[in-house]
Design a protein that fits this description.
CATH superfamily: Methylglyoxal synthase-like domain
Shape: globular
CATH class: Alpha Beta
Number of helices: 6
Number of strands: 5
Distance between the termini: 22 Å
Radius of gyration: 13 Å
Order of helices and strands: EHHEHEHEHEH
Length: about 130
């Protein structure tokens, strides 16, 4: 099965950074011709910024991270951008760890900050 989706997730304290990153790299993201999937609240922020979101799953703390993880297991996700807030407390940290683990198990590129994400995107175009 060919991966045809790119996932965007951001902790609350990083949603503005995610929107700024996506807006800055909108052309590259469009050129990759991948469907954008997100957790719920991140997707709402991206849609408000004019980004087309193919599918919004539940918010992370309601299982959205796990839903995206299941798409990874199905072979439907090409890369994950998860802007994490390393200084915040997150009651669903176990879900975050699980998502990161499945990215490692399935060898899915994962960026957790804007600089890493930009390098990953540019690498996809090379």
């Amino acid at each position: 099965m060919i991966a045809d989706r790119i996932a965007f997730i951001a902790h609350d304290g990083k949603k503005a950074d995610m929107v700024a990153f996506v807006m800055k790299n909108k052309k590259i993201i469009n050129d990759l011709d991948l469907k954008v999937i997100t957790t719920g609240t991140t997707g709402k922020h991206l849609e408000r910024a004019g980004i087309e979101v193919y599918k919004k799953y539940a918010s992370g703390h309601y299982g959205g991270d796990q839903q995206i993880g299941s798409r990874i297991v199905e072979g439907k996700v090409k890369m994950v951008f998860f802007f994490r807030d390393p200084l915040g407390k997150h009651p669903h940290d176990v879900d975050v760890s699980s998502l990161m683990r499945i990215c490692d198990v399935k060898n899915i590129p994962l960026a957790t900050n804007p600089d890493g994400a930009e390098l990953m995107l540019k690498g996809m175009l090379a």
